Amino acid sequence: MxxxxxxxxxARALAIFGMVIVNFKIAMNAETGNLLLIKFAGLFEGRASxxxxxxxxxxxxxxxxxxxxxxxxxxxxxxxxxxxKRGLLLIAIGLLYTPIWEADILHFYGFYFLIAAxxxxxxxxxxxxxxxxxxxxxxxxxxxxxxxxxxxWSTLTYENLWSFDGMIRHIVFNGFHPVFPWAAFxxxxxxxxxxxxSQSLMxxxxxxxxxxxxxxxxxxxxxxxxxxxxxxxLEMTSEEVTFLFSTSIIPPLPxxxxxxxxxxxxxxxxxxxxxxxxxxxxINKWLYKTGQLSLTLYVAHVIIxxxxxxxxxRLENQTINFSLLSALIxxxxxxxxxxVWLKFFKAGPLEWVFRKLAS
Length: 359
Hints:
Residues 4-204 form the Heparan-alpha-glucosaminide N-acetyltransferase catalytic domain. By secondary structure, this protein is mostly helical.
């Protein structure tokens, strides 16, 4: 797959839309309103961001394919240093952005990229093994470290972030998207990027396995929760049962990683099919162009989107109805901006700046 595949950009756009829905809901503390809308918004929690990270892994593979296939050590080193530079730049940008948006994912991305720089030359099987090991390290860390340390669950804020201990814990173990286990998504994405997704058979295999894995994981842990019940038989509280045996993002236990990763692959394969089937449709063109400005829109949804809502006094304690309406308006504006911008420029504004700084 040498040329740019618009299906990946389409998936990236959907990931951004999902993150906007989730982040607007969090920022507005939108827990009241239509119950169906609350459940709808909940579908994207921890799923849209997982898809976003997996797509970043696919992108890493595309960036390094030539170097990986080359026997030129100098060329490999150049690509390795390029990934390190991108990672350090993302860390710097993300940490500068964190005081504005505490749930920032960019600085975590930077650390994922540093790991990618070290391992992008390994074989396919090794990528899957590394991904699994990173996923499994997290529950081991939970045995020795307090996952809830520094968290204020009532406000969903991370305290002592800027202390040395707090920052290390936040990045490695118990932040919003810690290296253990979230880097597993990026490394799995690197493996996924090496598969020939232009072949129908490969797509069907990945889709089938992902659907089976998703359904089995969700159903299995649902049965576990039902069997345990309120947890009294095991001297656990119902909150502890949910905490340990759900497939939600907090905490990001292996069942969450497997479930979210599987759902991400299902969405990605669906986007590839849609983009091929409707390659000339305006909807496809508008969405894949939007995906090409994902970095710009990610930053803009906080700076411009939430900033505008805050200026009119509608950012906090809103209903889910208003939260989703605001997200919809931002996403539509993002599509319009992306289509118009790419009529005159080859890359989004922040994408262009990032490439210049990282080159």
